[in-house]
Write a structure and sequence with these properties.
Helix content: 40-55%
Order of helices and strands: HEHHEH
Distance between the termini: 8 Å
Strand content: 5-15%
Structural class: mainly alpha
């Protein structure tokens, strides 16, 4: 997703505790008033479980 920046993702997941499920990431992004493109990116991930923020970032930006 070209117009999604790592900083947008980091802000959206501020306060997230890991390990986390995809639903938890989406809920956290919504609570943080994240842009729709961030929420959609998280909701569209194929992976359901994440051990940390680096794993989320890798999943979002490597497809």
């Amino acid at each position: 997703m070209a117009d999604l920046s790592p900083i947008d993702l980091q802000k959206a997941l501020n306060g997230m505790e890991y390990p986390a499920e995809k639903k938890d990431l989406v809920d956290c992004a919504r609570r943080n008033d994240a842009d729709d493109k961030v929420v959609s990116s998280l909701d569209g991930l194929h992976q359901d479980h994440f051990d940390g923020p680096n794993e989320v970032q890798k999943a979002v930006f490597s497809g």
